[in-house]
Design goal:
The complex is a heterodimer of chains A (about 140) and B (about 400).
Chain A: H1 14-27, H2 36-51, H3 55-70, H4 72-76, H5 85-96, H6 101-119, H7 136-140
Helix pairs in contact in A: 1-6, 2-6, 3-6
Chain B: H1 2-5, H2 12-25, E1 28-29, H3 38-50, E2 55-56, E3 59-60, H4 86-92, E4 101-107, E5 110-115, E6 129-134, E7 138-140, H5 143-152, E8 172-178, E9 193-195, H6 199-202, E10 204-208, H7 213-219, H8 224-231, E11 237-244, E12 253-256, E13 262-265, H9 270-289, E14 294-296, E15 305-306, H10 313-316, E16 361-363, H11 378-395
Parallel strand pairs in B: 7-16
Antiparallel strand pairs in B: 1-3, 2-9, 4-5, 5-6, 8-11, 8-14, 9-10, 10-11, 12-13, 14-15
Helix pairs in contact in B: 2-11, 3-9
Classes of the chains: A mainly alpha (about 140), B alpha+beta (about 400).
Bound molecules: flavin-adenine dinucleotide and iron/sulfur cluster.
């Protein structure tokens, strides 16, 4: 995948990437509407962020993706990526408030990466009505 | 603050004199009213309405264009930081500045350093490689994480049990309120006011701020449609930065791992958690007094608190909802780790930044703070570094005068 060239050792497998993209759509619904260029910018931003993390953190993140994928089996009898969207959201809400801090932190990291991949793209800023200017004072007074 | 620090030999008059020198050199002044945007003005007016003490921040700018991008580095070269004022002046006076040079270890009046040239920043004029640099005095100024780490991985001829300890961080929250129509927020200088009304009573400080899409998104709790809806109207957002005034504890410390890289050990005390919760209630009052229709609080029991619920903040912003690992708590003010003092058991340097028992080794950065400051630390760091420079010059009379 495009952005993974940044990593000396690819931090995520193809399968993990596919899973991450699926969860990212639940976190930022507009990820589903990204065109090919937007998706590859998303992947490039997230890959770079992951590649800059120490190897043990990358490893922990990969493990967390596995936990998130399989944890729903206990309640729903299927892995995360076979659930309908409402149940996926229920699982994510559980992780957001999970009783164990490590699980909350894992979800925090996943959420942060999804936000970074999407909101880190200047191309989407106008849709947020965020249009900064190097000469902001001129805009301040219309 | 100095009374709280209680470092013998570090006096108010001395620090004030040095601070004023830098306030002048770095063009620190109050911005004119015409450059204050709604995000800032509404904060000021709301604090006044509520009877909270609120002050304008003097800022170190020259030719500010109001891009609002201060936290990313100034695109208009208007921010008068040490990199624009003191470093060029030092170079002009004959100081050699070597960029991309990482000091690995300090030995007996020497240090081992590695020069690399990554594809960003100012290229180094020294070729890539490892160097041993001999010096009559060494001044460490690598910041509150890296200075203690550097000293910890060095073999120093002194026992320093407090090294790395008493680290403080001003744990911070970015809070968002929403107006029902656009306000001016990302145009204009982002940080014009602060409210220190609660520093004594509740141990937190509030400042105006305006962050960027990713930073903002990360600081909101939740995900999905409601999160995206709030994010889709950044032009309606008002923002407040909370800084908790955290205690200096021996167990909050910088250590180094097997590779010598810094590891931060930081525990959030109940006092800090209480400050972070209470600050959200106060910020919500300010947002509502400023005209916001809805407020998002990381410790909120729901995603939004509406203006019609403003009298139930105690019940709607709770400790139970505020869980570590769930909430984004950040820090941009790292302090301590090589704290000043007189007792080598509880401090690392004397009041002039000299490492206890090592007459040729000094520290000159935020790691000197014995406890955190009660306001943004930059000027105090400069004033302390100025003292250290003076002490080095008196120790080494051969150096050129300032
Ligand atoms: C986004 C942001 C906004 C801020 N806004 C404000 C503000 O409005 N007002 C305010 O008062 N403060 C502000 N601060 C805080 C202020 O910038 C810091 O407190 C201050 O810069 C700390 O100074 P220092 O000298 O201790 O460390 P630093 O400024 O961090 O300097 C340390 C230097 O040492 C280098 N270094 C580290 N390790 C090594 C090594 N081994 N070898 C060689 N070099 C090394 C680093 O690259 C760095 O250049 C802000 C900080 C941030 C991040
Ligand atoms: S608002 Fe900040 S970043 Fe923008 S021009 Fe002024 S000083 Fe520079």
């Amino acid at each position: 995948m495009a952005g993974r060239s940044n990593a000396r050792v690819p931090p995520l497998s193809e399968r993990q990437w596919a899973f991450l993209m699926r969860v990212a759509v639940r976190i930022v619904p507009a990820v589903a509407d990204l065109d090919a260029a937007g998706r590859s910018r998303f992947v490039a931003i997230v890959s770079k962020a992951l590649a800059e993390r120490p190897r043990p953190i990358q490893h922990q993140f990969g493990l967390f993706l596995g936990v998130l994928r399989w944890a729903p089996f206990l309640r729903f009898g299927s892995p995360f990526d076979r659930l309908p969207p409402e149940d996926e959201d229920t699982v994510l809400r559980w992780f957001l408030d999970a009783p164990v801090a490590k699980l909350r932190s894992g979800f925090w990291a996943l959420r942060a990466l999804a936000f970074m991949g999407y909101y880190g793209q200047p191309e989407v800023w106008p849709s947020l009505r965020y249009t900064p200017s190097f000469r902001g004072n001129e805009m301040l007074h219309g | 603050m100095l009374a709280r620090w209680g470092v013998p030999g570090l006096g108010h008059v001395d620090l004030r004199r040095r601070s004023e020198k830098y306030l002048g050199e770095n063009n620190v002044h109050l911005l004119g009213e015409e450059t204050i945007n709604d995000n800032n003005r509404r904060f000021f007016e709301a604090c006044r309405t509520l009877g909270y003490r609120v002050e304008q921040f003097p800022v170190n700018v020259k030719g500010c264009q109001g891009s609002g991008l201060c936290n990313l580095g100034c695109p208009n070269a208007a921010k008068q930081g040490t990199h624009r004022v003191q470093l060029p002046a030092a170079e002009a006076a004959g100081v050699e500045v070597v960029t991309n040079c990482k000091v690995e270890r300090i030995g007996e009046r020497d240090c081992l350093a590695t020069v690399t040239n990554p594809p960003f920043g100012e290229p180094s004029h020294w070729p890539e490689g490892r160097y041993r640099i001999r010096a009559r005095a060494i001044v460490v100024a690598a910041g509150a994480v890296n200075s203690p780490a550097l000293l910890l991985r060095s073999q120093l001829p002194a026992r320093l049990p407090a090294l790395g300890r008493y680290f403080t961080a001003h744990p911070a929250l970015i809070l968002v309120g929403e107006h029902d129509r656009p306000i001016s927020n990302f145009y204009g200088h982002p940080k014009s006011y602060y409210c220190d009304h609660f520093v004594e009573s509740a141990k937190f400080l509030l400042e105006t701020c305006m962050y960027f899409p990713f930073t903002t998104a990360k600081n909101l709790i939740g995900f999905g449609a409601e999160h995206a809806r709030l994010m889709s109207r950044m032009d309606r957002m008002q923002m407040i930065l909370v800084l908790a005034v955290d205690p200096a504890l021996a167990e909050n410390r910088i250590a180094v791992d097997a590779a010598g890289d810094p590891v931060v050990h930081y525990r959030f005390t109940d006092e800090v958690m209480d400050a972070l919760i209470e600050s959200q209630r106060v910020a919500a009052r300010i947002f509502f007094a400023a005209g916001c229709t809805r407020v998002h609080a990381p410790a909120g029991t729901g995603f939004f608190i509406g203006a019609n619920e403003a009298d139930r903040l105690e019940e709607l912003i709770t400790r139970e909802a505020f869980k570590l690992g769930k909430v984004s708590i950040s820090s941009a003010h790292l302090m301590g780790g090589c704290r000043m003092g007189t007792d080598p058991a509880t401090s690392v340097t004397d009041a002039w930044g000299q490492v206890h028992g090592v007459p040729w080794l000094f520290v000159a950065d935020a790691s000197l703070f014995p406890m955190c400051s009660e306001i943004n630390p930059y000027v105090t760091i400069m004033a302390l570094a100025d003292r250290v420079a003076e002490r080095v010059r008196t120790r080494l009379p051969g150096l050129p005068a300032a």
